[in-house]
């Protein structure tokens, strides 16, 4: 299939591109490179450097590519920026999405998969939340993901565009930006491999459901390709298992130590430093992905130890050249 991946030069999108190519499909990328990079993509994959807010530019890409599937990953994805600049957040995450949906309908896309967010929709949850859990978004980012899903539902029902929303848990893996606010695994891996201590907010007892990016890419492929009898569906994409920041840091430190010792380091990586709590951080966020298992045949395959091993090895390859 010809597949347009918006945000395909970013962290998750570039792994979606890899998964599509591995399955024999033909991906094309639309990305304004605001946080993504050409370096995340194989040279053969066509990249259109276009902003999804530019309706004319997006139209030209759809005319040229004529995609059969769309994987919509492009977004303003900083929660704190959404709080500071809710209007900008809505321009990208609502109006930009509407442009992608309208163009998909116009050229007859067969299915669109959308990157939604479990954590931003469900808020604090102490046991894995199913899709039926009440949505209670508090940040503008969470609000636009929720609104985005409602637009998907509208286009699926009334505009002949089948759509699937994938509510990701906390995604981690190679190519995640260590300078963003979300990627704690990327941030800790980079600091520890450079011999600096991790900085943990508050007591570190913040539980998250960490899902490996390769599994998230596989979920996108399943969401586009599996036969579904519903025109709109939303699925949680996570593991249902919680890890707190203290445990996560200890596991990453272990992986980094093995790599650094293998390169002849003699001193131990310093222990983490604890700073103040970050206002508004959820205490616990866990999602139940059993619906995706039943309907998409998808479940997370990479356990956290293995995912962290792969991720730290990748960052080591970037940092310790
Ligand atoms: P990312 O920043 O690496 O990827 C986003 C990509 O979209 C980047 O390549 C960026 O250049 C591009 N982009 C941003 N604004 C654009 C615009 N106006 N026009 C065109 N391209 C634009 O982030 P990511 O972690 O890969 O996130 C991908 C998607 O997954 C986002 O929709 C995000 O909200 C969602 N998500 C991510 C997580 C996570 O844990 N990383 C969790 C839940 C949901």
Please specify the SSE layout and strand pairing.
Layout: E1 2-6, H1 11-22, E2 26-30, E3 47-48, H2 55-65, E4 69-72, H3 79-84, H4 86-107, E5 111-117, H5 118-122, H6 140-158, E6 163-168, E7 170-172, H7 184-193, E8 199-201, E9 207-208, E10 210-212, H8 213-225, E11 232-237, E12 243-244, H9 245-262, E13 273-275, E14 284-285, H10 290-296, H11 304-319
Parallel strand pairs: 1-2, 1-4, 2-3, 4-5, 5-6, 6-11, 7-10, 8-13, 9-14
Antiparallel strand pairs: 9-12
Bound molecules: nicotinamide-adenine-dinucleotide.
- What's the count of strands? 14
Low-pLDDT windows of residues: none
Biggest sheet features: 7 strands, parallel
Can you give the mean pLDDT? 96
Radius of gyration: 19 Å
Strand/helix succession: EHEEHEHHEHHEEHEEEHEEHEEHH
**Spatial gap, N to C terminus:** 38 Å
Strand content is 15-25%
Shape: globular
Number of H/I helices: 11
Which molecules are bound in this entry? nicotinamide-adenine-dinucleotide
Task: Return the structural class.
Answer: alpha/beta
How are the strands of the biggest sheet laid out side by side? Answer: 3-2-1-4-5-6-11
Helix percent reads 40-55%
